[in-house]
Amino acid sequence: MIFRVQLDNEPTVGNLLGVTAAGNGATPCGMLQYSSLTDEVDINYVATQPWNHLNWNLTVSKGIHQPTSEQLSVHASESSPPFVLPTTGKVPNQKGSYNNTAGDLLRSCSVEGAAAFGVSLVCIGTATNGYTNVYSSSDSISFALLKKPPKTA
């Protein structure tokens, strides 16, 4: 009898690289200004594992009292409209971007024109040491999306 054993002790990498609105980055204090509700807001991340043994979850939460319907979540190999993810979560060594308009993110807060967000990326390696998963990584950031004040003369 022959057993083939495959070993993979490579860790996962989960990094949130930053967030931009219409190409402009957030300030060091996390303030991100947008001009229009149609401005693209991009959350850039890396979710990878060298041998593609990875499941990941990217969650964007809004405000303090988070209703389930307002939580935006993308899982490995899955995306649900209107939130479109250009990569699948199963692509090794690839950067991704979670793109939505400011209006899509603000939703019920679009009247106020501002909201605070927390972003969490969790990467779980599908390999284990026989008892637990020791090859996981995570990252989190927060930012406030604010309407850019009109220019004064």
Order of helices and strands: EEEEEEEHEE
Tell me the number of strands. 9
Class based on secondary structure composition and strand pairing: mainly beta
Largest sheet: 5 strands, mixed
Give the CATH topology: Immunoglobulin-like
Termini separation: 83 Å
CATH class: Mainly Beta
Annotated CATH architecture: Sandwich
Number of domains: 1
What is the count of DSSP helices, taking H or I runs of 4+ residues? 1
| Residues in helix, % | under 10%
User: Which strand order do you get reading across the main beta sheet?
Assistant: 3-9-8-5-6
User: What is the rounded Rg?
Assistant: 18 Å
Low-confidence stretches: 75-93
Provide the β-strand percentage band.
35-45%
The outline comes out as elongated
Provide the residue-averaged pLDDT: 77
Detailed description of the structure:
The chain has one helix spanning 102-106; strands at residues 13-21, 24-25, 31-34, 40-48, 54-62, 72-75, 95-101, 114-125, 137-147. It has one domain: Immunoglobulin-like (Sandwich), CATH 2.60.40. Strand 1 and strand 2 (24-25) form a beta hairpin. It starts with 12 loop residues before the first strand and ends in a 6-residue tail after the last strand. The chain contains 1 helix and 9 strands. The strands form 2 sheets. Strands 3-9-8-5-6 form a 5-stranded mixed β-sheet. It is 3% helix and 44% strand. Residues 75-93 have low confidence and may be disordered. 22% of the residues are buried. The longest helix is centred in the C-terminal third of the chain and has 5 residues, at 102-106. The protein is elongated, with a radius of gyration of 18 Å. By secondary structure, the chain is mainly beta.
